[in-house]
Amino acid sequence: MPETPRPALSGSDRTRLRRLRENGRTDRSELDAVLAAGFLCHLGVVLDGAPMVVPTVYGATADTLYLHGSVASRSLVAAPEATVCVTVTHVDSLVLARSVFEHSVNYRCAMVYGVPRQVTDAEEKLEGLRVLSEQAAPGQWDYARRPDRKELAATTLLALSLDEASVKISAGPPEDGDGPDAELGLWAGELPLHQVWGEPVPDPALPPGLSAPSHIVARVGRI
Amino acid sequence: MPETPRPALSGSDRTRLRRLRENGRTDRSELDAVLAAGFLCHLGVVLDGAPMVVPTVYGATADTLYLHGSVASRSLVAAPEATVCVTVTHVDSLVLARSVFEHSVNYRCAMVYGVPRQVTDAEEKLEGLRVLSEQAAPGQWDYARRPDRKELAATTLLALSLDEASVKISAGPPEDGDGPDAELGLWAGELPLHQVWGEPVPDPALPPGLSAPSHIVARVGRI
């Protein structure tokens, strides 16, 4: 993270919120926080005129989103030629209102638009893969064997600028607590949804007596 | 669910898997299971030639996916005119291998392509909204106040056929347990990721002494 203040999220026709504007955030630190809280995004590309949405892992720096995949992957082959949309969503709770109509979901969502750049510089490629690896599996870059030359060549790494991005955050209780439906006497509130890491499951091929390293065990029960 | 055997998932050029074919499933019950396990999808549409991927809730029957949103929502206004791609993803675990290159994610993913139909029939609209509501918040359709005529008119409901769909499921330990990297003596395995419902948080506007109904409390600690 840079130590200088970061510019506000840029407005573009695409990222300007059409509805529920009160949920929109313009502070770049909100984008950083949403991206830092996950490791899986949904990558949207246009293929033969139709949308295709695929889940994939990502790694975020202050100004770049890194995406990767096999060279053979259709979406990544298509992506460098055109605009993509990358969406990262965290569901925080169900909002259970007095009326079905007022039910909703509390969530944090980041959307990033841009034309990805295929990373070919060896140094940036290794650094991008490190960022991507550490986002999903912190500590593994130092613990596991790093990519060799052949593996690097077999990996497509895309860099997407975070210049055109929007963040929406929805939080709080149902909104019908002061309306006529409050008279119905029904319970209303939020049902939180948590993501939690479970106990590590050893590879059956492991020799006996090898325990999981502390950087993995430390994640259990947390997100 | 129908009691007759369901046809296999249809192949189309889009849904045919280009890579990791061993992860592909053709049994329609696998699609049912992936869709039944969630309530949030990522809807991809093409808008002004660019992809847009937005998170939204869905409800699934044996042959139809229902999506809804405000009439004002851009994505749903655009969607009825063209093909959409709806993707539902569940992350089950991180696959921590001996090499960074072999790291991956175990997941279940369904992708559905089609041109959605806007539901205008009042009876189907109500039934679709019930399916959608019960998928995210089972029990609330009977507990909360159902949509009135005005609310129904303000809701856009889209129906997407499940005819063109694919399912990918990735499971199991890392794949480098019998390769040269096994000699490195590193721990390898899976780190499971669980989604768990937390304790209900009452709306601060509730009168004192009103407790959450049993169909909500019963979900706590489960997914």
TrEMBL record, chains A, B:
<protein>
    <submittedName>
        <fullName>Pyridoxamine 5'-phosphate oxidase family protein</fullName>
    </submittedName>
</protein>
<dbReference type="Pfam" id="PF12900">
    <property type="entry name" value="Pyridox_ox_2"/>
</dbReference>
<dbReference type="InterPro" id="IPR012349">
    <property type="entry name" value="Split_barrel_FMN-bd"/>
</dbReference>
<dbReference type="InterPro" id="IPR024747">
    <property type="entry name" value="Pyridox_Oxase-rel"/>
</dbReference>
